[in-house]
């Protein structure tokens, strides 16, 4: 029996003093002094008791534990506008419009009790059972507790006596399965309480009056729960030089914590509710093979997986979100599917422009993007003409590694990729002269529409109000983000030990490697196909790194 305990904490203090000075002839025309203070405290504790014993061929284990994590924070900020910036301290009293003060505080905690029991009979039959009870301050009393059990089982069929005739051909075979519940409480604090904000909210003539604003609340919030089920097998062939693993899973999440839209008559924001169901299905296959041909040893490894989700229930409500990139949560489709107009080529002449269809309130010109008219009324409107046009979730994720060893020389490489993915790019990543600035201008902008280039891949170049039609949210800006990338390649040599003994060196290896040397993708503009940001491209690019090294052991 073992008793294990641990405790940790982190205190974060941050102070800011800022003296912003005005510069004539610029947009920064105010002298402003600011003082800010922030403190947070995070404490974690764990206490566990473990017990393991073996009786003949029976191995039994158990664990009991308790965990706590708590977090609290507070901050305030005060600032004032000054006539000049001669002094770098707050001098004298000042009130009115030239002074502002803000502050906030919050805390949360989660208490957990958990237990585990394991059983192993002769390495043939494997059982495990887990249960935990999490108690979260994010929910009101009566709903704070969440109980989440799970179990798994495995059977090494190849260890059975009846398998002996197949052992020379299939030396290892194991089937396994698992089932369990996990919880989610990741929402903001105090969502079950009706908080009050006081601010200057009403104007009476030239005077502002303070108002109290009550936030929406839902005291019935409870844990979001995911049921996870998995079944798979592990197979060894060719004296276990070839190993194959396959898994398939089905997860269903219910009571999803989500803000369902409310009617405008409600007069307030939408409270969080337990009001959704999503199912995720998928599989994964991995293969490893070790091959020896004379003095050369080869190591192959590959894997491929796929998962996809479907919204099962949102109580008949569609949730549309986003600004420059818009998504929708709708029954029967993946979470956060892209929601946009469908492009239909370019208008080629004035006659086509007059015929339409056209966006509501916009008269297109030759070279502008044309959009599909969903209901045939000739006018494209957001409420009637948008389509679900994909999503950013990667499909068919795969990887491959190869290693070679030969008389002290070694070589390895790793490839990875995604077989299907969409990425909605926006702003300066795709639009020439975005926001009327001087750039960036990409290479694909050169194949723009002109009367002499009607088969172009990019609409006519526009700026300002002229861009209204082409800047509409459509699938024209959604790119094919599948890719294949060589993540790493390395070559090295380990010198023979009999050479190194003379130098009093135990081991000496030299190597050279490169990271991200090759990427094959259809993404335009050189954007990283693994990019997960907002689509603007405002992210540090993936670096290609060359390394040379020396490993010495004495």
Short description:
This protein has 554 residues and is mostly beta strands. It has helices spanning 350-355, 382-385, 497-500, and strands at residues 2-20, 31-55, 58-82, 99-121, 125-136, 145-156, 172-184, 196-204, 207-214, 224-237, 242-254, 257-259, 272-274, 277-293, 296-313, 319-321, 327-329, 337-340, 343-346, 358-359, 369-371, 379-380, 387-388, 395-406, 409-420, 422-424, 478-480, 483-494, 507-521, 545-553.
Provide a descriptive summary of the structure in words.
With 554 residues, the chain is mainly beta. The protein is 3% helix and 55% strand. The chain has 3 helices and 30 strands. The strands form 7 sheets. A 16-stranded antiparallel beta sheet has the order 1-2-3-4-5-6-7-10-11-14-15-24-25-28-29-30, with no helix packed on it. A 4-stranded antiparallel beta sheet has the order 16-17-18-23, with no helix packed on it. A two-stranded antiparallel ribbon has the order 8-9. A hairpin with a 2-residue loop joins strand 24 and strand 25. The two termini are 40 Å apart.
